Amino acid sequence: MSEPFIVISRVEISPETRKLYVAAVTECIEATRREQGCLAYEIHESLTQPCRFVSYESWETRADIDRNRLSPHVAAFLVTARACFAAPPVVEVVEPRSIDRL
């Protein structure tokens, strides 16, 4: 197996939407973990800055990521998430060819 593709997302949500966001992202993650090519998907909330979340996804191929982004459960999640964001999210994809090993 080749090196995985990594997706790192950072979001800040409004405090009053926290429960809504957590429910929506939990449902989306559970569905995503069953998708072809998904190796891992975790989300963490900052202990020092509540309502700031970082998620980590690991995928076999870039095509798997692209397919996930078009899935119905991601589309449904994004409708809810957009109403929760306090700032624009930052989403980064780390491709294997750009990782330098020491």
Give an account of the 3D structure.
By secondary structure, the chain is α+β, with helices and mostly antiparallel strands. It has a single domain (14-98), classed as Alpha-Beta Plaits, CATH 3.30.70. It contains three helices and four strands. Strands 2-3-1-4 form a four-stranded antiparallel sheet. A hairpin with a 6-residue loop joins strand 2 and strand 3 (52-59). Helix 1 (18-33) packs antiparallel against helix 3. The longest helix has 16 residues, at 18-33. The chain is globular. The chain starts with a strand and ends in an 8-residue tail after the last strand. The relative contact order is 0.30. The model has no long low-confidence stretch (mean pLDDT 93).
